[in-house]
Amino acid sequence: MEIKEFIEHFAEQFDDTEQSEFKPETVFHELDEYSSLIALSIIAMVDEEYGVTLNANDMSSAVTIEDLFNTVKSKAE
Amino acid sequence: MVGVNPFSLEGKTILITGGAGGIGAAAAKTCVGLGARVILTDIREDALKTILASLPTSSMVEPNLCFTADLTDAEQLAALVDFCPQLDGVVCNAGVMKLTLTQFITEEEIIRIQKINLNAPILLTRSLLKKKKVKKGGSIVFTASAAGVYRVSPGNGIYATTKCGIDAFMRTVALEFGPKGIRCNSVNPGMVETALIGSFTEEQKEKERQNYPLRRFAQPEDIANGIAYLLSDAASFVTGTALKIDGGMTLG
Q1: What is the value of pTM for the model shown?
Q2: Do A15 and B176 count as a contact with CB atoms less than 8 A apart?
Q3: What is the second-level CATH architecture of the domain A3-13+22-76?
Q4: Is the ipTM of this complex over 0.85?
Q5: Structural domain containing residue B167
Q6: Hey, which of A22, A34, A56, B45 would disulfide with A11, CB 3.0 to 4.6 Å?
Q7: Torsion on CA atoms B189, B193, B195, B199, rounded to nearest 10
Q8: In total, how many domains does chain B have?
Q9: Could you tell me if A19 lies within 8 Å of chain B, comparing CB atoms?
Q10: What CATH number did the domain enclosing B71 receive?
């Protein structure tokens, strides 16, 4: 599981945010476009791409995209 | 703003499913007449080509196109989505109807009708949105029905059920994609003079016509005009709406 690929999938859930904004250290809750609908689409993307079920707590406790990547990685193992 | 026509579809590329059918073909003609270019799809290849050939030339640089596909087949649906350029409008119009009284309903018929009327439009919408093929400011229109959503009639249970499903899905997409600037609505016809109502006898049709205050069934063009309105910028603040086009049938 590569973080580069994870970030690409993560970024696909957004429409208006510049691609350059998506980095491992990005605090994604603070992105203007981030919303409960986007959170739902990230949860669905993670289920589809990685076979991992994230809960609301996983989403809120992750601060950066890398944090979320690590959560997904640990659940996938 | 003199001279600007909000009902114009100039510069818009619009995908229409069921393009060889009565309402689909009328919608194609109306859209092209209003300045759009259309991409028509249908399972009936010969009829589709005939409709495409009968359309006026697109006023846009790109030509009108057609793509034969069975949208209940996942591979063919995916091929259609890949074929489509960026779209300003999507008309999920393909559908079937069969009259069956409740005690004669079979599971095979439920599955067949549901796949065409409900699963295919949901899955097509899903794929187009997921692949970001619908532009910001775009409009999705479903051909739902007065049946199920506004009234029911004997023998039409399965069809009406699928149209209720489309109604709920249409409103859900409107809610989810409103923030992204994509609108979603439906047209809800009563009886339309197309091949779809071929299963009614002349006597049934004449009796049914008495339920219409305007004393006629819709022509496909009546429905096409509603579709064109919902696709146009004239409807830019309209989303989640089920537009009844039924000659007043559901009033009584």
Answers
A1: 0.90
A2: no
A3: Orthogonal Bundle (1.10)
A4: no
A5: 13-245
A6: A22
A7: 80
A8: 1
A9: no
A10: 3.40.50.720
